[in-house]
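The methods section describes the discrete structure representation at length, but only in general terms. What matters is that the chain and its backbone geometry are given together, residue for residue. Nothing conveys this as quickly as seeing an actual entry. For illustration, here is how one protein appears when written out as sequence plus structure tokens:
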Amino acid sequence: MTAKSVADRLLAAKLITPEHHAAAVYRERTSGLPAADFLVELGAIREEDLLRFLAAELRTQYLSTERLRGATLPRTLLEMVPLKLVEATQMMPIRYDPRTRVLAVVTADPENLDALTQIRAAAGVRDVQPVLARAAAVRAAIARWYRNDPRPFEDLTDGPALHVADLVGAADEGGIDWLERTDGDNRAQWKIREPARPGEAEETTGGAVPARPAPGAAPPAGRGAPPPGPAPSTTADAGAVAAADYLETLNILISLLENSRAELRGHSAAAARHARDLAARVGVPETEVQAIMAAAYLHDLGKGAPFHLTALNVAEWEGHRDGARKRFETPLRLLETVQLRPETVRAMLHMYERFDGAGFPTGLRGKEIPLGARILAMVDTYADLTQNTRNPFRRTLGPAEAIGVLDRYRDTVFDGDLIDLFRTVVAGSDLRQRLLAGRRPILVVDPDVEQSAALELRLLSRGFDVHVARGAEAALKQLEEADVDLVVSEVDLEPFDGFELLRRARAAERSRRVPFLFFAARAAAEDVARAFELGAADYVVKPSTTEVLVAKIRQTLERRPAETRSAGVSGSLADMSLPDLVQILSQGRKTGKLVVTAADGRKGEIEFLDGRVANAAFQGKTAQEAFYAMLVIQQGTFALDPAFRPNAVVIGESAEALLLEGMRRIDEAGR
């Protein structure tokens, strides 16, 4: 709920006057003070009445400042959520029920689902329940219990009742003149003064148009600047701009701006395209995908020359870092009157955080960093490496080589799980599926986007063909339409739980013999017993290591032999380069022989055993030297024989190491 909507709702309920509404909206726009805090401090409404009304609107509980001040919070409760995340989300734990594994947090923004998801992941709980409080009270509580400040609540009381006329003074007396009097019905009324039109400004100022204050700057002392016009709403209505049109408009405008910098021409469009593909691959909702795309279009706005401030450049060079510290808020300041989606704002604000916690502005680490920011940091760097000739390598890199660079900063600057997912996105899904055909298909059913994406990645790396469903109905549909050898399911699903999913799957002819393995947060004996009563093959309680889960999966699948699937795959190197082929076969733990035929007729072979590069042969060379020599082939065809099995592993290096060394040699040879 935005501050403006708070004021609107209070006015519609006749809990505040139109004058107080106008004052609250303007104060929020100019100073950032939340409307709710301003109205309470003004005395326009009692805090208890405000919180009771908003809690009813949001269907949640509330906590007054006085009750929050008198709370007793044990240290073990506070340690469930790190201070950095508490300060970044402005959500603080106040109660935990170990029986239901539900954590209650006090917050002024109960509708911030992204923040609630981050809290849930950090605390390792089943659910997070928001409890409404004033923003000022939440800040005071954080200072009191996390910072050990003994006096943060002292000034937080209901303010004295003031008439809005007390806020308006003559300009020559140092008052503020952003309200104008509109008397009617035999009483004085006020509304926000509308900005003067250019012609009117000339009349009142003798032809001089007042300078517009810098974004974020306070109004000049003694005279308040007129408020900016209303921000465009992001709510879908009859007059709303369609998301596709909005993004296309951003694409056109940003592309025009980038035309002045030849090295960055088309950069933001490429970053937005990669952000879309990766966010969709992770499985975030479509509205959040669009918000992350908007951040990718806007993230460079106003940052200017001479440096391109990618996450990689900022991490490596002091000059870039200093520039980013000064300018990281510039796009948001330029767009401060635009009502951007929260996911867009968070992605741009936190794109220079580092996965190891050494970034800025707040020093978040790991999954504390908003997902959109982690995606933006990576796709911005990738687009720079593959398109900008002035990147750190002073040449454009190929996809495999650029992914290799990202991999060097795995879990320090970038999220390692997202790197691996992005690698599969870049490689191309269609050909990838053909190359990896024959793997055992597994359906993962889990509503948690990040946990299921990480599980999918780990199962892919173990040689499984993984499909994901976020809910029970989607899982049933996949079971009806696709061949599945095993279901790995959470119990807590919507609109019905995993036990009911298993029961319905057993009732359907196509899925009645598909084994179910529960990988669930519930650990109660009765839940485990019920799973086995319904016919589950196994039950693994979260959290558990990948090795344990994979062992259980393999044991289950051994009891259900797979159908024979063995087909060769062929294609053109124009569709997928040799380095990308090697990466996909390696990650898919494939066995077989890849035969590459160059456009001039030269032939080479690379042998794979369970994903390892076992041997290679090309023009009289063998092993590593043959592999390196083959990487120069860019035009030609390839064919994979999955029936071939190498006799021995001759090459000891990993596929990644071989590719990096091969690219280094090609680079040196070209100098």
Q: What stands out?
A: The chain has a mean pLDDT of 79.
